Amino acid sequence: MIKIEFPKPDVVIRQREQDVKPGDVPITPYFGFIDFHKITREKGGIFLFYNEKNELLFVGKARKIRQRIKKHFEDNVSPMKNHRDEIFKIEVYEVEDAMEREIYETYAINVFRSKYNVDKVFY
């Protein structure tokens, strides 16, 4: 049996309203998220989308993680296009090695039973 230890997330962002104080310039939410700037632009990794009940909705990987996550909210070919409103929390794991990203993605999809992933499902 292969034992894979899943790392702790490098970044976790949640859908929320911005706390605006007098004199602050409000940040326009992007599908309810205002903290995309916390996600690295240059590094690769995997990401997990969760709903408000903390159920795993989708697992993905990318060479440039912030751009890929944003694409899920923008394009019409994303498997999440009909489920964007369900996403409440995003966990980001920085994983530079492409083979490790592939292993972690497949592992997360199957062990945590991602709801909307259809590829790489073995359960």
Unreliable stretches covering 5 or more consecutive residues: none
Please state the CA-atom Rg, rounded to the nearest Å.
15 Å
What's the average pLDDT? 88
N-to-C CA distance: 16 Å
If helices are DSSP runs of H or I spanning 4 or more residues, what is the number of helices?
A: 2
The largest sheet has its strands arranged as 1-4-2-3
H/E element order: EEEHEH
Strand content: 15-25%
Shape: globular
Number of strands: 4
Largest sheet: 4 strands, antiparallel
* Helix proportion: 10-25%
Kindly describe this structure.
The chain is an alpha+beta fold and 123 residues long. It is 20% helix and 19% strand. The chain is built from 2 helices and 4 strands, in the order βββαβα. It has helices at 65-74, 98-111; strands at residues 11-14, 45-50, 56-62, 89-94. It has a 4-stranded antiparallel beta sheet. A hairpin with a 5-residue loop joins strand 2 and strand 3. The longest helix has 14 residues, at 98-111. The radius of gyration is 15 Å and the shape is globular. The protein starts with 10 loop residues before the first strand and ends in a 12-residue tail after the last helix. The mean pLDDT is 88.
